[in-house]
Specification:
16 helices, 3-stranded antiparallel β-sheet, mainly alpha, binds acetyl coenzyme *A, single chain, 3 strands
Length: about 375
C-alpha cells in the first residue's frame, strides 16, 4: 500500500526540536534576549567575557566570578605550537574558514582533558575554545598578511587583546567598544543553522571540539555567517552613494538576493542591526573617507530595500548589513568577518551543547523517499 505523503517542513522551518533557556527571539516584535536579558542592554553595558559567562552558566557573574573567568580566558590565549603551524601553512591558500575549522579541530590533540566527558571538563574546554578561537582569527589575519603572529598580552581584555594581536597596535577606545558590541551581538542566536548542526554532532555523543568544528563549517555559507562579507563587497561594488539605487534596482530585477537583508525568524527589523546601525552613524564624523562613503551607501540601500521589500515582503536589514564598515573602522579586513563571527558564536554553541547534553537525544529526522523499490540488480557487464 502506498505510504501517505507526510507533511514536510523544508529547511525544518517552523519545527521545534528541543527546549532551551539560552536565548529567545521574537521575530515579529524584533526583540532578542540572552538568558532573559534584552540584547540592547548587553550590547551597550556588558563585555564579551561577561556575556560568555552568562550564556554558559545561565546567570550574570558576581565580580569575583567574572574576574576568575576573565583570567581563565586570558591564560588560555596562547595556541599550541602545532596549531599555529597549521594556521601559518594554510593561511592565504584557502578560505580562512577552512583554516579556522582545521585549527579548531587540531586543538583537541593538545587538550589533556580531551577524553574527559564530564560537565566540568566540558565547561573548561568551552573556556579554551572561546579563548583560542579568537587567537586563531588574529593569527590567520597576521599570517595571511605575511606577518608573524603576535604574543597575547595578558593585561588586556579579550577584545582589546584580539585587536592588538591582529593589528600590532593598541586599539582605540571606539574600536574596542564597537568590536565588543559585535562580539556580543553575534555570540548567540538560538537554533540557527550552525548551532543546530553543532547540536546534531553533539547529539551523537561526539566531543565538544567536533561539535564546534561542525558549527564553524556550517557558519561558512553565504546564507548564514558569510553574509556580512558579501554585504560589504556589495557596498564596495556600488562604489558611490549616487550609484546605490541603480545598483540595487538592477540586482532585484535580476532576482539577486541582497546580502544582509531577510531572515528566517525576523520578519521585521533585526534588533542587532539597529544597534550596529546606531554605532555606525556615531562613527561618521571621525571615520575615514571610505567608511563615510560606505555608510552613506548603506543608508541609501537600507531605505530603498525597506521601501521595496520591508512591509510588503518582511525583508528587513539583518545583523550582517551594517557590520562591515564597523569592522573596517576597527582595522579588521573583510576576509576575517566570518571567522570573527565564529569566534563570537562559539560561546552560544558551547552553551547549547552543554544544555543539550543534560537531556541528550540523538537527532535523527526523517526524509520522505520518492525513489523506486525492488529493482533487479544487473551485473555490470550486462547493463
Ligand atoms: N534579497 C532579496 N530577496 C530576498 C532576500 C534578500 N536578501 N531574502 C529573501 N528574499 C526573497 C526570496 O527571493 C523569496 O522570494 P520569492 O518568494 O519571490 O521566491 C522570499 O524573499 C522568501 O525567501 P526565502 O529564501 O524562502 O526565505 P528564508 O526564510 O529561507 O530566507 C535568508 C532567509 C536565507 C536569510 C534569506 O533572507 C537570504 O538569503 N538573505 C540574504 C543572506 C543573508 O543576509 N543571510 C544572513 C542571515 S542572518 C545570519 O545568518 C547571521
Amino acid at each position: 500500500m502506498a505510504e501517505a505523503k507526510p507533511n514536510i517542513n523544508l529547511g525544518l522551518e517552523g519545527v521545534y526540536f528541543t527546549e532551551s533557556s539560552v536565548c529567545k527571539i521574537d521575530g515579529i516584535a524584533g526583540r532578542l534576549w540572552y538568558r532573559g536579558y534584552p540584547i540592547e542592554e548587553l550590547a551597550d553595558q556588558s563585555t564579551f567575557e561577561e556575556v560568555s559567562y552568562l550564556l554558559l552558566y545561565g546567570r550574570l557573574p558576581k565580580r569575583k566570578e567574572l574576574d576568575d573567568f576573565s583570567s581563565q580566558l586570558a591564560e588560555e590565549r596562547a595556541l599550541p605550537e602545532k596549531t599555529a603551524r597549521i594556521i601559518a601553512d594554510m593561511s592565504g591558500k584557502t578560505d580562512p574558514m577552512h583554516v579556522m575549522a582545521t585549527a579548531a579541530s587540531s586543538l583537541s590533540a593538545y587538550d589533556r582533558e580531551a577524553d574527559d566527558t564530564t560537565r566540568d571538563a566540558n565547561l573548561r574546554k568551552s573556556v579554551r575554545l572561546i579563548s583560542k578561537l579568537t587567537s586563531i582569527v588574529s593569527s590567520i589575519g597576521r599570517y595571511s598578511a605575511g606577518m608573524e603572529a603576535m604574543q597575547p598580552d595578558g593585561n588586556m581584555g579579550h577584545i582589546e587583546n584580539f585587536l592588538y594581536t591582529l593589528t600590532g597596535r593598541r586599539p582605540s577606545a571606539d574600536a574596542v567598544s564597537n568590536t565588543q558590541a559585535m562580539f556580543i551581538l553575534q555570540a548567540e542566536h538560538s537554533s540557527n543553522a550552525s548551532t543546530f548542526s553543532a547540536l546534531v554532532t553533539a547529539s551523537t555523543l561526539s566531543d565538544i571540539y567536533s561539535a564546534v568544528t561542525t558549527g564553524i563549517n556550517t557558519l561558512k555559507g553565504p546564507l548564514h555567517g558569510e553574509a556580512d562579507e558579501a554585504a560589504l563587497r556589495m557596498l564596495r561594488a556600488i562604489g558611490t552613494p549616487d550609484n546605490t539605487e541603480r545598483y540595487i534596482e538592477e540586482a532585484l530585477a535580476g532576482k539577486q538576493r541582497i546580502m544582509g537583508f531577510g531572515h528566517r525568524i525576523y520578519k521585521t527589523y533585526d534588533p542587532r542591526a539597529r544597534i550596529i546601525k546606531r554605532r555606525l552613524e556615531a562613527l561618521q564624523g571621525s571615520a575615514s573617507e571610505e567608511i563615510g562613503r560606505l555608510t552613506q551607501i548603506a543608508l541609501r540601500a537600507e531605505k530603498l530595500m525597506i521601501d521595496r521589500l520591508g512591509q510588503s515582503h518582511g525583508i528587513w536589514p539583518n545583523i550582517d548589513f551594517f557590520a562591515g564598515p564597523v569592522y573596517l573602522s576597527a582595522g579588521i579586513p573583510v576576509e576575517l568577518f566570518t571567522p570573527i563571527f565564529a569566534a563570537s558564536r562559539v560561546s552560544g554553541w558551547c552553551a547549547h551543547i552543554l544544555e543539550y547534553w543534560q537531556n541528550n537525544r540523538l537527532i535523527r529526522p526523517l526524509d520522505y523517499y520518492t525513489g523506486t523499490l525492488d529493482l533487479k540488480y544487473v551485473p555490470i557487464d550486462a547493463r
